[in-house]
């Protein structure tokens, strides 16, 4: 019985001593303290650098670029006068009577009312405004970045899977064409490819800038995914395919049910890294006038003069997108490893 208890309890527990795992965890606290110190030093260095250039932080200007209260002006439609004003809480209903006897009822915010009862109005005079919440440019830029990333990533995955299999094909034409595609895309900058798609192919085929941007990103991603898929399939032992064929499976069935599932487990980390890079690469489509997150930030800077605040927010938004992707990939990788 004592032997069984000693096996179940951690080492040193019966003697009132901490376990080896707890001691190891306790020994790591100086390294965690060093990490915290380095982060604090980095934050202090950033603050000190901005103090040298006498930069004034204006974080209060940033929220309006995510959501703000828009004002819609209400104007008099004709010459006349204010017949009546009825206050209804925070709003006021204004009744205007034109010279021809026509009535116009307007409901405006009470604190924006510019007229009083009996005042004369001319055509186009502002009576007041109504307010409503409206999403700002940074929100719409974030949304554009998200949908471009999702669409380009899905298309790039399909293109990459097909390209990777063609690279392993016994057909020389498929193998050669896929090799030319991969080398051409990997050997030229993405920015140049976007320009070619928009200014050349887009002009010839009359494509929209969004279509050109998504196509360029999808083909760029597909080339790298194709190489990842090829390497993953080649990493699976040749005996797996031979065993599947000996069981009566066709080449396509063997690839689908035996080879690709094993290859997917091995290529998951590089695939996740490629899609994270794709999210950041969407910033390049701003050169063809697509207002994604980075371009929205540049436009916000021109009106707010809050350069550092906007760029820090943009960096944080990219981080908010990519961190969950990295965590999901890590969790999926651990789950697939347990299923082996």
From TrEMBL:
It is a multi-pass membrane protein. Belongs to the binding-protein-dependent transport system permease family. HisMQ subfamily. GO terms for biological process: amino acid transport. Pfam families: BPD_transp_1 (PF00528). The keyword Transport applies. Residues 142-329 form the ABC transmembrane type-1 domain. Part of the binding-protein-dependent transport system for glutamine; probably responsible for the translocation of the substrate across the membrane. This is Putative glutamine transport system permease protein GlnP. Its main location: membrane. The chain crosses the membrane at residues 31-48, 138-164, 184-207, 214-233, 308-325. Keywords: Amino-acid transport, Cell membrane, Membrane, Transmembrane, Transmembrane helix, Transport. GO terms for cellular component: ATP-binding cassette (ABC) transporter complex. One of its GO terms (molecular function) is transmembrane transporter activity. It comes from Pseudomonas indica.
